Amino acid sequence: MTTTTTTTITSKVKRSSIPTIRSAMLERGALLFRFEKPTGVTHKQEHIAWFEQMQEVGLLVTTNGCILPYENFRNSSKGRPKGHKISAYYFLGGPPPRQEMHPHGWPTEMQVSHKCHRKDCVSPLHVIWEPQWKNLKRNYCGADGSCDCGMTPPCVATYHNDGWQYDDEIISYSTDGYRRQVADLLSGRRFTILPKNHYESIDNRKRKRDERLHGKRKNKVVPRKKKIKPSES
Question: Which domain holds residue 37?
Fold first, then answer.
């Protein structure tokens, strides 16, 4: 059984390394998505760029409906937020709405809350903007084995801490009926699952272009500076 506890890839997401990272993600069972931008949402260009890069290297979809990005997106990097926040910007209408002060002084800072309690998940059906006190309350969900925290919308799983070992399987290109399974898990969201080799020709063109540019730089002749003779007095 393939689970999400797989080998960690530690490379940085640099444009030149995207094909390498994508190849490693595909070996782990990732799918190549192309989510449609939600209508009626005002996107900043940086939010679109971040999300497109995150999906370009592949996403791991579990049988519990969680979507996990490449590890570099599980942390913030040079002004770019973590993957779950990028997902919230993209699917939930940009920055979080303003929240009024709570009458009892509870913390109302808006946060990305996970209905699945899996902090790395970027599924548009699992992330939601909520004030901090609601996000914290979800951490006490599942005492009776089901969602009992009283939050709306309800959790899709009971709470587990960061050290929990999940045994859900990855839905990959080799999974029978993978398109139908993913469509059921993401019901209501419009997306396309690209062929596994979708980027091969694009990557080959970029690789050949980079090789040509590298060759030109290597063979470029730097003109020698002419020596200026001192003028006669």
Answer: 15-208
